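Title: Comparing notes on inverse folding

I've been comparing how different people in this forum approach sequence design from structure. To keep things fair, I'm posting one structure and asking everyone to reply with a full sequence. Here's the target:
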């Protein structure tokens, strides 16, 4: 193997020496191109494949932001290329998101419908082209509708008639769609979702109108008959109005309770009734306002007002003045013919008269402002509030500061009602809190009303009885413990006294026996009689002698020892 490799290297060296410079450059160029091609193939094969969501670029930055935000809500991974084309991972995701964007009017206005559905047209004849076109549209529509979360199955039928020469002879394009909702879906009653499917179909088929689209469920019930959904829409509107009314009443209740509970207490204020009559009618008010013309504005640097205002400005003025004096002239007919002047006016002819006419026409201009005001979605027609405030219950105490208890064991209490002055102040607070308006007929009533606190007082009385019972029990236990302690102390004192007396008696007996023994010994010594002592007596005598000697030699230590014995006793 090594010899073959050496031989190959020698042959390459021989060829390399025979090649010219141009041939060497060509060899290096071919090798570089092959290496670059391999790198590009590896890079593109390892890159993830993505498909465009909409093939045309989205030039509107606002619309691009809305579309990307919608993709984020759906959790779709996407990329925005430099040419503003959005790329998504696969074609099913693209179809699903296109359906959602069409339903929510997020498709760019100038987007080609065929670019959305990406229909390929491989045709040979016109007939095959039309057939494949309808099949492609039908298949793409089914895929897009089936990509919706609420649809389990779908069937689309399109009828695209051939083009006629005259418009009145042209049959309309029609479409029928049968969808099977998923279990638990509300697509059959949700008008917004049905309208989204209608827009989706209109985007796919050119020349298709709303009245030529029929969408039914698997039971044959038409879903896009929005005329029949007016009652449902009316119910939804009424439900929203009731919710608005409830939320507004809750807000007003919170404001009233916040204004009064911190003053009177949380358990003394009760809103008996709060009713808000709302006007939900939609109104647009148009107003034309005329105001003076400012000829000279005020100079803010001066302390006085320099504004010059005139009611109007003259745009044009026309004056006309006529004056006539002399004999009036009545025209007659041709010579020899009588004129056509009526007989009633013939007597007035050829009289001296005077005529004057003065006319002045001025065109004035004033500042004018047209105001178009659209009324808010709702307004309060009338507000009714009724609030009840309870008085104060106070416990009664005796001269010693003890709570007075009734014969039945309950606490004696005294009721103090709310004063009229406090009621007026509370009513003023409630009016300010709800925005009281007398002109619209609002009614605010704040009255004193005694609340039923029977259950509360029963609980307080029961708790008081438990406390008193616990107190008596604790006192009894303390007294019993004190008695036991005193008895134990007395018993110990008596026991010590008895023990002390017994010990004294024993010591006295021992002392007497010792004295008698010593007297007997002395008597025996005097008589010269030898007496034998027992071992115990000898030990006692020795101990006694040692104690006497120690007391004589160390009297202070013996005294301290005796004090210690006495303290221990």
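Reply #1:
Here's my take.
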């Amino acid at each position: 193997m090594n010899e073959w490799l050496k031989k190959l290297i020698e042959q390459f060296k021989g060829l390399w020496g025979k090649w010219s410079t141009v041939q060497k450059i060509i060899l290096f160029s071919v090798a570089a191109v092959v290496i670059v091609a391999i790198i590009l193939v590896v890079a593109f094969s390892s890159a993830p494949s993505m498909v465009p969501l909409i093939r045309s670029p989205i030039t509107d930055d606002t619309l691009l932001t809305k579309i990307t935000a919608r993709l984020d809500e759906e959790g779709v991974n996407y990329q925005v290329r430099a040419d503003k084309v959005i790329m998504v991972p696969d074609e099913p995701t693209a179809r699903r998101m296109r359906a959602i964007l069409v339903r929510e009017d997020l498709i760019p206005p100038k987007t080609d419908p065929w670019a959305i559905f990406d229909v390929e047209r491989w045709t040979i004849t016109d007939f095959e082209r039309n057939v494949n076109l309808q099949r492609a549209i039908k298949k793409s529509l089914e895929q897009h509708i089936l990509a919706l979360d609420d649809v389990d199955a779908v069937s689309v039928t399109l009828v695209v008639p051939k083009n006629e020469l005259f418009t009145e002879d042209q049959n309309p394009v029609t479409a029928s769609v049968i969808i099977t909702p998923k279990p638990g879906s509300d697509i059959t009653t949700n008008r917004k979702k049905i309208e989204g499917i209608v827009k989706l179909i209109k985007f796919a088929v050119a020349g298709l109108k709303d009245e030529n689209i029929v969408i039914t469920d698997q039971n044959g019930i038409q879903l896009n008959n929005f005329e029949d959904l007016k009652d449902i829409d009316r119910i939804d509107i009424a439900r929203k109005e009731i919710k608005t009314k409830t939320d507004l009443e809750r807000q007003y209740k919170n404001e009233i309770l916040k204004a009064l509970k911190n003053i009177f207490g949380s358990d003394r204020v009760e809103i008996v009734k709060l009713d808000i009559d709302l006007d939900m009618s939609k109104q647009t008010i148009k107003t034309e306002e005329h105001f003076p013309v400012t000829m000279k504005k005020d100079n803010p640097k001066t302390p006085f007002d320099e504004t010059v205002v005139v009611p109007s400005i003259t745009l044009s003025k026309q004056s006309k003045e006529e004056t006539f004096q002399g004999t009036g002239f009545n025209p007659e007919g041709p010579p020899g013919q009588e004129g056509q002047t009526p007989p009633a006016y013939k007597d007035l002819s050829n009289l001296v008269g005077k005529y004057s006419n003065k006319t002045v026409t001025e065109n004035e201009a004033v500042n004018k402002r047209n105001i178009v005001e659209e009324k808010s979605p709702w307004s309060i027609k009338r507000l009714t509030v009724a609030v009840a405030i309870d008085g104060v219950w106070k416990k009664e105490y005796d001269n010693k500061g003890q709570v007075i208890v009734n014969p039945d064991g309950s606490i004696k209490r005294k009721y103090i009602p709310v004063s009229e002055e406090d009621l007026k102040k509370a009513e003023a607070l409630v009016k300010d809190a709800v925005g009281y308006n007398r002109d619209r007929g609002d009614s605010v009533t704040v009255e004193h009303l005694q609340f039923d606190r029977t259950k509360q007082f029963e609980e307080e009385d029961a708790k008081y009885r438990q406390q008193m019972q616990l107190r008596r029990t604790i006192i009894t236990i303390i007294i019993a413990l004190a008695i036991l302690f005193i008895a134990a102390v007395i018993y110990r004192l008596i026991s010590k006294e008895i023990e002390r007396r017994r010990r004294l008696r024993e010591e006295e007996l021992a002392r007497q026996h010792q004295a008698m023994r010593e007297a007997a010994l002395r008597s025996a010594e005097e008589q010269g009689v030898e007496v034998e002592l027992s071992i115990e007596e000898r030990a006692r005598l020795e101990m006694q002698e040692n104690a006497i000697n120690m007391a004589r030699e160390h009297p202070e230590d013996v005294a301290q020892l005796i004090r210690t014995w006495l303290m221990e006793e």
